[in-house]
Amino acid sequence: ASATPPPPKATVSQYACQRRTTTENNNKTLTDAFEVLADSYELNEMEGPCLAFRRAVSVLKSLPWAVKSLETAQDLPCLGEHSKAVMKEILQYGHSFEVEKTLSDERYQTLKLFTSVFGVGPKTADKWYRRGLRSFSEVLTDSSIQLNRMQQSGFLHYGDISRAVSKAEARALRSIIDEAVHVITPDAVLALTGGFRRGKEFGHDVDFIVTTPEPGEEETLLPKIMNRLTKQGILLFSDYQTSTFEMSKLPCHRFEAMDHFAKCFLILRLEASKVEGGLHLAEGDSRGWRAVRVDLVSPPMERYAFALLGWTGSRQFERDLRRFARMERRMLLDNHALYDKTKKEFLAATTEKDIFAHLGLEYIEPWQRNA
Ligand code: 8DG
Ligand code: MN
Ligand code: MN
């Protein structure tokens, strides 16, 4: 008899929105390897293979058991020839030659390094790489390179913002934003979204939704918050985008990936004294503050449920919600609305549960959306 019982034979859905994925990952060796290949394809603008590996990662993350042989993975969805070949190598030898080769590739290493800077996307990273640049010091001393404001801040605060934000730090930031919005509007609503709402212990930033019940007032909220943070001397950087959202102009054929709500991407100065248990700094670093990335989005209250669902993530969970809506329900979902193409109407929702119900999906709690 085998020492470990065989995994249960329940069928796994090809859609992340029909799976429950907590932060516990039983297949980290495999998913880390697949993520290297997905990132590499993404940096080379090969969307098909990138998405295939992202889907495979997401399926493996949802499993309550560890894949130990190809046979047990046989009935899983979203595992193609390529991912199975990589999986076979890892299960047999403990590592994959293709992944090792990618990790030691100069272009991959350089593009990963450059895109780790706030404000530097794959296009800019590739441009710098093609100019022969390989390190931060080469980029910073090249006189032909003009950094934009975001990239300048990205380099200035690189050490801090490339370091993970802890839950305690996220809580401290919540109090700071909470105090600011309620001074501005007593009936304001503030909600934590992103990875921390999904129960993650660490994040690369902290995401919040802020709004007010008074229609139109949400549009002035972010500038007022930013003003207050400036006066407190803790706003180190801000990129503010005004709202371009108009309900009457929502397209009924194709929804967009980016939303039109007012939003801002910030870098804040967080004092150690505000964080229970202290700042999450490197060993030996005893500074009294650190820089942290914060995202704020401000939808009209009437669009709150859609914005909350869209900004909670994970990205793969969102992609599959939209794909499921389109492919299985002839509906279009984005951060603003849900449109039924059969009934030719927008479906109302005040909570995330309403949206899952419209889609005929079992409700998935935020901490089960770590796809
Ligand atoms: P992390 O920060 O802990 O690393 O993970 P995360 O919280 O899941 O990632 P995120 O990059 O902060 O994104 C959170 C969600 O916000 C994600 O589902 C995608 C969503 N999102 C939008 N629009 C935009 C946008 O314009 N920019 C960014 N950065 N995220 C957006 O819906
Ligand atoms: Mn986040
Ligand atoms: Mn974010």
Automatic annotation (TrEMBL):
> What job does this protein perform?
Template-independent DNA polymerase which catalyzes the random addition of deoxynucleoside 5'-triphosphate to the 3'-end of a DNA initiator. One of the in vivo functions of this enzyme is the addition of nucleotides at the junction (N region) of rearranged Ig heavy chain and T-cell receptor gene segments during the maturation of B- and T-cells.
The name of this protein is DNA nucleotidylexotransferase
The source's superkingdom equals Eukaryota
Please give the biological process terms from Gene Ontology that the record holds: DNA modification; double-strand break repair via nonhomologous end joining
| Residues noted as binding Mg(2+) in the record, renumbered to the chain | D205, D207, D295
Reported EC number(s) for this entry are 2.7.7.31
Reaction(s) catalyzed by this protein?
Answer: DNA(n) + a 2'-deoxyribonucleoside 5'-triphosphate = DNA(n+1) + diphosphate
Please give an example of a GO cellular component term from this record: nucleus
Indicate where this protein is primarily found. nucleus
Q: Which cofactor does it need?
A: Mg(2+)
What is its EC class? transferase
